[in-house]
Amino acid sequence: MIDINTKVLGLMGYPLAHSLSPRLHNYYIKEHDLNYVYLPFEVKPENFSDAVVGLKAINFRGVNITIPYKEKIIDHLDSISEQAQHIGAVNTVVNEDGCLYGYNTDAPGFIRMLKEDGGFDIEGKKAVIIGAGGASKAVGFALCKNGIKEILLLNRTPARANELVELWQEIYSDVIISYGGLRDDSYREIFKKFHLIIDTTPVGMAPETDVKPVISPQYLHSDLLIVDLVYNPLETVLIREAKKLGARTLNGMSMLLYQGIESFSLWTGIKPEDTGLKNGLFDR
Question: Which of 51, 115, 176, 237 has its CB 3.0 to 4.6 Å from that of 43, i.e. a possible disulfide?
Fold first, then answer.
């Protein structure tokens, strides 16, 4: 029962209709019999700053941050972890006595998914990352930290991609990193030498599930592992087309769970077990 002692957690982003985070965290709250509640807060851009101030005023225990605020939130925090600072994006905020601390659990969540669910050995491999937002920052940082050999970053705005590439190169000078736009017919040949493609954009996310992928499926091949961080729906157009070519695929459901476990631990001190919720989240 919710009472005066109930600790409030939440999700801030815009839009949020696709999100399964409230279902996930309220499941964990119930499993561990905690006096917490996790709520979605769809915050329009013009109200974002006021909403963050409200976290302190109403004494929220913490929130997850999602599209499009993972970078914008940083300027509103009292402190951020060293990892979040290197990444340049925050997806988890903890309120400690009125001070807001920022963390990034996307990076460890992504690596766990890649290794445990994808069986992918990162060391010495080559990856293409699509998109240059907060999720892309976490993915690129995580790959560099775990021994990737080369990254090609593709984004609609090459200038933004260039900024991110320069940031990664400052920290990981031994990794070959380049960038480009998304309208280049030469990628068919370029992709032949890569092992992993990660789409970090929201393209294909519910409710717009029939939108074409930002890269043409004709560039893909059967030796690739294709990762689409969208988890609702479980099978985007990109994943569906990649499967037709015989490529291995991963959606973002495992990353949602694994980063959620890390966030939940930061707020409550309890680290839930992976309870096999990956597909069942849609049924609960």
Answer: 51
